[in-house]
């Protein structure tokens, strides 16, 4: 599927693809754009299937389809190899690429993500919530996983914007991506990832806590490093933008 994307930064810079979480759109990466483009990278952020301005797929989708969308985007941009930075569902998409399309990668940064998250029943229930109660109900539940209580209290306007981001996501688009997460189990394939890999976890992330998720990935991917960022819940790149961005830039530079 052709995804909606925005490309910024020097046309001759190494390409960094930013792949987002379920219930988000490409604006979730706003804190990273200026630092990455100023560091000389061509930043390509996109909306996952059924999110933002990317069309809603006709049926539940798979991680292979989400990963295939990135490969197709790289083809369309005439980019052979890119750094891929993904958060949550975006990190799962990035791992799929690392396992199945290694020739397209320069490096991986896997933020607040998991190689196996809950299983089919959990995500079928989430899809059912989206369909039966609507996306405002999904946003009401997600916002407390995305950000710590302290950040929400200190940033009420931004909190409303992120709540709106999820509430405005089409229910069928969200449900389609729930199926991709429910059908995912990448654990056994992690040792096949050869790209230089940085894993970043939020110390306060209730959705993908470092212990059962980021650490599992970093332990299994050859040569991977784990960084745990304090005072960050699930959307750690927003809650602790400087720490996340500094870690990302440092990793991209080390992979040059
Ligand atoms: O449950 C959430 O909202 C957190 C999450 C899990 C996968 C993802 O992309 O976001």
Task: Map the helices and strands.
Elements: E1 5-8, E2 15-19, H1 30-38, E3 42-46, H2 63-76, E4 82-87, H3 89-100, E5 105-111, H4 120-133, H5 135-146, H6 149-154, H7 156-167, H8 171-182, E6 197-202, H9 214-220, E7 225-229, H10 236-239, H11 241-254
Parallel strand pairs: 2-3, 2-4, 4-5, 5-6, 6-7
Antiparallel strand pairs: 1-3
Bound molecules: ligand LWBT4IAB.
InterPro entries: AB_hydrolase, AB_hydrolase_1, AB_hydrolase_fold, PcaD/CatD
GO molecular function: 3-oxoadipate enol-lactonase activity
Pfam family, one: Abhydrolase_1
Main sheet strand line-up: 1-3-2-4-5-6-7
Provide a count of the helices. 11
| Unique ligands | the ligand O=C(O)CC1=CCC(=O)O1
The oligomeric status of these chains comes to single chain
Which architecture does the CATH hierarchy give at level 2? 3-Layer(aba) Sandwich
Q: What is the total tally of β strands?
A: 7
CATH topology: Rossmann fold
Q: Overall 3D geometry?
A: globular
CATH homologous superfamily classification: Alpha/Beta hydrolase fold, catalytic domain
Radius of gyration, taken over Cα atoms and rounded to an integer in Å: 16 Å
Helix amount: 40-55%
Assign the structural class, choosing from mainly alpha, mainly beta, alpha/beta, alpha+beta, or little secondary structure: alpha/beta
How much is the average pLDDT? Answer: 98
Strand content: 5-15%
- End-to-end separation in angstroms reads 30 Å
Largest sheet: 7 strands, mixed
Spans of at least 5 consecutive residues whose pLDDT stays below 50 are none
The helix/strand series, from N terminus to C terminus, equals EEHEHEHEHHHHHEHEHH
Number of domains: 1
Q: Which CATH C-level class is it? A: Alpha Beta
């Amino acid at each position: 599927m052709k995804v909606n994307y925005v490309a910024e930064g020097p046309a001759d810079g190494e390409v960094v693809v930013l792949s987002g979480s379920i219930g988000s759109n490409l604006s979730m990466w706003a804190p990273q754009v200026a630092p990455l483009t100023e560091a000389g990278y061509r930043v390509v952020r996109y909306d996952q299937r059924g999110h933002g301005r990317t069309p809603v797929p006709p049926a539940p989708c798979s991680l292979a389809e989400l990963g295939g969308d990135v490969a197709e985007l790289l083809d369309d941009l005439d980019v052979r190899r890119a750094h891929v930075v993904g958060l949550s569902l975006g990190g799962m998409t990035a791992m799929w690429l690392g396992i199945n399309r290694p020739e397209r990668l320069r490096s991986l940064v896997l933020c607040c993500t998991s190689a196996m998250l809950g299983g089919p029943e959990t995500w079928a229930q989430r899809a059912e919530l989206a369909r039966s109660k609507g996306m405002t109900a999904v946003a009401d539940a997600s916002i407390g996983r995305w950000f710590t209580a302290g950040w929400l209290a200190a940033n009420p306007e931004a909190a409303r914007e992120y709540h709106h981001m999820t509430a405005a996501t089409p229910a069928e688009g969200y449900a389609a991506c729930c199926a991709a997460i429910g059908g995912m189990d990448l654990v056994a394939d992690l040792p096949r990832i050869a790209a230089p890999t940085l894993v970043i976890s939020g110390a306060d992330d209730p959705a993908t806590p470092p212990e059962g998720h980021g650490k599992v990935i970093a332990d299994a991917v050859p040569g991977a490093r784990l960084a745990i960022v304090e005072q960050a819940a699930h959307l750690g790149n927003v809650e602790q933008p400087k720490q996340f961005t500094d870690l990302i830039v440092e990793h991209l530079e080390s992979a040059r």
